[in-house]
Amino acid sequence: MANILPIIRVLIGTVFVVSGYEKLIGPYQNFLYVIQSYEVLSVPLEEAVARIFPWIELFLGIFLVVGLWLSLSLKGVIVMLLSFIIIVSQAIVRKLPIDECGCFGQMISLPLKGVLTFDTCLLVLTLVLVFKLDPASRFSVDKYFEKAV
């Protein structure tokens, strides 16, 4: 089990890199429209989130892939995944007319129930990594600097 944890870490990080990158290469208005469709934020916050959120996703993903500030990065991913789960859940409960999540920009289209399942699985795996941080940090930048000290 311990040998697979670094692979899981890299895979979760890759999901966040792809998601953040896909939102960044398109006009921010595309992601802004997605945010607005969930009807949870005020207008000034929607634009700020549309501009900043993809960068947070991208950097958290990069940090997971390379294993930099791993404990903090994993906790950041947990906060993001919990946010995603809550936002998607409320959209399902409120029966908002959203056909797909918008999680990966124009690259991948997932229905809300599918993304809810996906995010829940990612959350469980991320929690495992938090509780098994030492084996999950194999081949990480953190471990490299730990050895150097």
What does this molecule look like?
The protein has one domain. Helices cover about 75% and strands about 0% of the residues.
**Percent in strands:** under 5%
Provide mean pLDDT, rounded: 93
The total domain count is 1
Which value, in Å, is the CA radius of gyration?
A: 16 Å
Q: Report low-confidence residues grouped into runs of 5 or more.
A: none
What characteristic shape results from the CA principal axes? globular
Number of helices: 7
The major β-sheet equals:
none
What structural class do you assign from the helix and strand content? mainly alpha
Q: What is the tally of beta strands?
A: 0
Order of helices and strands: HHHHHHH
The level of helicity is over 70%
Distance between the termini: 28 Å
